[in-house]
Design brief:
29% of the residues lie in helices and 23% in strands. By secondary structure, it is an alpha/beta fold. The chain has 2 domains: 297 residues, Aminopeptidase (3-Layer(aba) Sandwich), CATH 3.40.630; 136 residues, Roll (Aminopeptidase i, Domain 2), CATH 2.30.250.10. The strands form 5 sheets. It has a 9-stranded mixed beta sheet, sandwiched between helices. A 7-stranded antiparallel beta sheet has the order 8-7-11-5-6-10-9, covered by helices on one side. A 3-stranded antiparallel beta sheet has the order 12-13-23. Helix 3 packs across helix 12, helix 7 crosses helix 12 and helix 8 crosses helix 9. It starts with 7 loop residues before the first helix and ends with a helix. It binds manganese (II) ion (2 copies). One manganese (II) ion (MN) binds next to helix 7.
Length: 472
Amino acid sequence: MPENKPSEKTRKLKEDLFWEQQRCWDKLSARERAEVSSYAERYIDFLDRARTERRAVKLMVEEARLKGFNDIHAKGAKTGRVFLSSREKMLVMAVVGKRPMAEGIRLVASHLDAPRLDLKPNPLYEDTGLAFLKTHYYGGIKKYHWVARPLALCGTLIRRDGRSVDIDLGLEPDDPILTVTDLLPHLARKQMEQKASEFIPAENLNVLVGGTPYADKKADERVKLSILQILNKKYKITEEDFTTAEIQVVPADRPRSAGLDGSLIAGYGQDDRVCAFTSFSALLETAQPEHTCVAVFYDKEEIGSEGNTSAKSRFLEMFLMEMLQYTGAEPSQVNLHRVCFNGKGLSADVAAGLDPTYPDVHEKRNSPKLGCGLNLKKYTGSGGKYGASDANAEYASWVRNLFNDNRVVWQAGGMGKVDEGGGGTVSKFVANLGMEIIDCGPPVLSMHSPLEVTSKDDVWMCRKAFKVFFMS
Ligand code: MN
Ligand code: MN
């Protein structure tokens, strides 16, 4: 009876010619598997404490100092491990390499900002005996994600006396949380007929903050007054201080392990703090690299990289100039161009994971899957590659070989079907400096929602990828 199976020769040919998708887990040793969960715990703790870009910078600077990094402007011994922060919202760190910087650096770029609700300049008001805060959303959100869920206030406010005050309400387990109310289904007939982009208008994203009236019954706006009294007692602030503050409304839920097998991580802000954390820890573990290694953590990516803490700012260039000086090279324009032009970069940002519940928007062959490693994304952009950073074939294959040689599990792909949407990252701004750069990062489900999902083995693999890249 003829066997219903291809011949050995066909099997061999397929093995030689086809490219098989790999699962991270299958490629890990027992020791590495054990490390995956402990590393995930550290990452979850970081996510929990770094709810805003300012918090992230603060935490990273604290830890970097413990690991021997100094502010590049600090006097004293040159450790070859330096950092510089821009307005406490953007950070650059470097480990000096053996070769002159003009021979090229290794750069990993990620971003620390995440979609959220910002407070308006005049946020506080009272209506129907309750006090609320007006908000203005930041980044690409689905507004209905932000109603009827626990929220916290996180931010920085400068008092009239010039003192900076960190606001932190709703994150400790015993803190009262805040929320944006939603309409009950019983009265939502009209609301339910509206488009998802419209049924929660932006001006309805008002945060409920209290309901106790101030004691004097003759006063008006008594609830607003008592809320201001609470804030004044805790932070010595007045209503005017809000007008110039940066206060964010963020999900109050703690990030957690997810799945019955605990293999996933569910939490807010993983776009792109997952790449920030993994490249940060990779740089901390980097010693005596061949090339000078730089990790840059940008702000304002989610609103198009505008502003002086963004990837469009000249801060990275200034830092590289200072690094030239620090390493004893001439901080000239031509040297800066050489540093960039001979440099190699990874734009580390999350990828849209293939969600089997929504197959229509994905192109299966070219969408990254959770648990299958870093997504190496040759190009970004939308439509006819508009706004794309498209890595050169020579460089893309150099990265591919580096990953293959070091057992980094990776997958090729991009974001969704052509013409379905699209998006960019900071890569094009770095590419404009003349550097070779390619996008890569772990796939995420529920991206830009208050509960983004990643796979622990992908997260671990990111750190490994950045480590081997820094040591290349
Ligand atoms: Mn991102
Ligand atoms: Mn994003």
